[in-house]
Amino acid sequence: MTDTMKTDIVNAVQEQVPADLMMKISDRDFQAIRDLVYDKFGINLTPEKKGMVVGRLQKILKTKGFQNFHEYYLHLVEDKTDRAINELANQITTNHTFFYREADHFDFFVKTILPEITARKKKTNSHDLRIWCAAASSGEEPYTIVMMMMEYFGQDYPHWDAGLLATDISEKALNLAKQGVYEDYRVKPLPKHLIDKYFKRQQENWVLSERIKKEVTVRRFNLMNKMLPFKKPFDCIWCRNVMIYFDHSTKLELVNKFYNQTVPGGYLLIGHSETIGRGESKWKYVKPAVYRKEE
Fold this sequence. Notes:
This protein has helices at residues 3-14, 27-41, 50-64, 69-78, 83-92, 103-123, 140-153, 171-179, 184-187, 192-198, 210-213, 248-260; strands spanning 131-133, 164-168, 181-183, 199-202, 205-208, 216-220, 234-239, 262-270, 284-287, 290-292. It is of the alpha/beta class. It folds into 2 domains: 3-92, Chemotaxis Receptor Methyltransferase Cher, domain 1; 103-292, 3-Layer(aba) Sandwich (Rossmann fold).
């Protein structure tokens, strides 16, 4: 069982309310909400997720005064402000992550990807290094990437336009990323010298250095958008542990969009529990969860 699956189970248990107080959902209303979530976010809520959906949406129904899930669904489709849909995204998405997660990716980034990128840039006298973290959650992943770049370039880092774009569908998670305050267990996987260098202790939490935060542009973005509105392609895209929630066709559509938004020789990193079938896209397999666009 993956850590993401374990977290889903923990979250579902924690979000349960007493059975006699929990609103029930009909198969018809669950299917309606399921279809809406798929259409808006690409997330495939299987029938096994029904209990999780009921548990996570209980608070919204009770605080907003909805009598049942059908009323709530009508509110979702009739709301023209997108606030209801955004709130749904906050509740449905699982934003479990921590610093230095799947550490071998960061080692490969430093030892292989960054040397390749910088060598290619120097041939054209360019210092524009474009990285996109497409499922940034609460910020641990993009901030770790920036630390790796700062450690790799050292004193030369200011000479590179090496900032990073961090996007996610969950506004709640992105607000946490902007704050940059993390619990001990989220920071602990980092090597100690990086904790000492880039964090300050604040009671029981760790506060991220402003010099790391300012290198990351945080934006809300839906990966299901038909067009990716970026003027220039990226040297490396990270999209880890989100495609496990997509069905096969949605995943292939997304990785093809990523391909078109990547420079020749650029990389795509996905979660270790995710795969791209060989021959199903133009991406070339490099190693588990790492793919490259041919030059």
